[in-house]
């Protein structure tokens, strides 16, 4: 009986798990510099995309190119220069569609605390788990870019 109760509790937990990704980390760079890295096409292509287009204005559409089969779009839902930026993914893989990718920037003594989120996943499936790992890798590359000027070629970003 105890085993059956435990199995039911685990199943209920799984059904109610929120599939969201959060990463908070400090960088030795100003909030304005971080904001440019996460909002400008040039900044995004240095740590995340192959190419990007878009303007940091609420309602604007970003085109995010990750390769021929991955030409995605996101619409800006939050934007406050030097403080906050968020996209809702409008044209992407089915698991990403409707999710929100965002950054909140808080000034700290020696730089900026980046509070990253990727929220609204439909479920904690394999793609979610892979993306959680990939975000950790990409955000490390963002940090290296901001602190050391390192730019890792796109094809090598998930292997460094």
Using brief descriptors, characterize the structure shown.
160 residues; alpha+beta; Alpha-D-Glucose-1,6-Bisphosphate, Chain A, domain 4; globular
Can you characterise this structure?
There is one protein chain. Strands 1-7-6-5-4-3-2 form a 7-stranded antiparallel β-sheet. The radius of gyration is 17 Å and the shape is globular. The model has no long low-confidence stretch (mean pLDDT 93). Helix 2 packs across helix 3. It is built from 4 helices and 7 strands. It is of the alpha+beta class and 160 residues long. Strand 2 and strand 3 form a beta hairpin. It has a single domain, classed as Alpha-D-Glucose-1,6-Bisphosphate, Chain A, domain 4 (2-Layer Sandwich).
Short description:
The protein is of the alpha+beta class. The protein contains 4 helices and 7 strands, in the order H-E-H-H-E-E-E-E-E-E-H.
Write the layout of secondary structure elements.
Layout: H1 2-16, E1 21-27, H2 31-39, H3 41-47, E2 51-53, E3 61-65, E4 71-80, E5 84-91, E6 100-108, E7 111-119, H4 126-148
* Portion in beta strands: 25-35%
CATH T-level topology: Alpha-D-Glucose-1,6-Bisphosphate, Chain A, domain 4
Total number of domains = 1
Alpha-carbon Rg, integer: 17 Å
**Oligomerization state of this entry?**
single chain
CATH structural class: Alpha Beta
